[in-house]
Specification:
With 201 residues, the chain is α/β, with parallel strands linked by helices. It is built from 6 helices and 8 strands; from the N terminus they run αββαβαββββααβα. Its EC number is 2.4.1.122.
Length: 201
């Protein structure tokens, strides 16, 4: 996912680094350019991010479904170690309805994957996501893209798969690198005060 104003400041760096290790890369935008970008019928802006995601997956389903087993959605400020991602996905079957990422648990019963960390849909998950909108089973119930997609995944019986490594550590990270590299100070705990009465006073 990218936009016209980010092609030179962000997206070109993806093209020159980790995108080279993908089987296929599509840069989704609101306009077509010779970068190249795919023009989606949606305006830029955070309030349109979920529609952009819907249109992107519909486009992929129509034109590229049989060119890959797994489909990674990442924003233009994301860095991916593709070799590690391939290793994580190697134990799963792309013909099963699965999606992976950094799982958050509020609001959706089975949780949802953080959009900031990027997430991966199996081929069957992609089919079901598009079917959800074609049949009306999924709706645009929220502008919060990752949560709304998670709701559709739950509706379409797409299960969240475990993306942690063999030591139980997260492999998808939604926050900037310094959040993980620099020790974070503990959050202050609220004070509790107990009043003890003496002699009935």
């Amino acid at each position: 996912m990218t936009g016209p104003k980010n092609l030179e400041s962000r997206t070109k760096h993806i093209r020159e680094t980790w995108a080279k290790r993908c089987n296929k890369v599509l840069y989704m935008s609101s306009v077509e350019t010779d970068f190249p970008t795919v023009k989606l019928n949606v305006s830029e802006g955070r309030e349109n991010l979920y529609w952009k995601t819907i249109r992107a997956f519909q486009y992929i389903h129509q034109h590229h479904l049989d060119e890959a087993d797994w489909f990674l959605k990442a924003d233009d400020d994301t860095f991916v170690v593709i070799e590690n991602l391939r290793y994580t996905l190697s134990t799963y079957d792309p013909e099963k309805p699965l999606y992976l990422g950094r799982r958050f648990t509020p609001f959706i019963s089975q949780g949802y994957m953080s959009g900031g960390a990027g997430y991966v849909l199996s081929k069957e998950a992609l089919r079901r996501f598009v079917e959800g909108f074609d049949t009306g089973k999924c709706t645009h119930f929220s502008n919060i893209e990752d949560m709304a997609l998670g709701k559709c995944m739950e509706t379409m019986k797409v299960e969240p798969a475990d993306s942690r490594d063999v030591k139980g550590r997260q492999t998808f990270h939604p926050f900037p690198p310094d959040h993980y590299l620099i020790r974070q100070p503990p959050r202050p705990r609220p004070c509790s005060v107990a009043f003890v009465s003496r002699g009935g006073k």
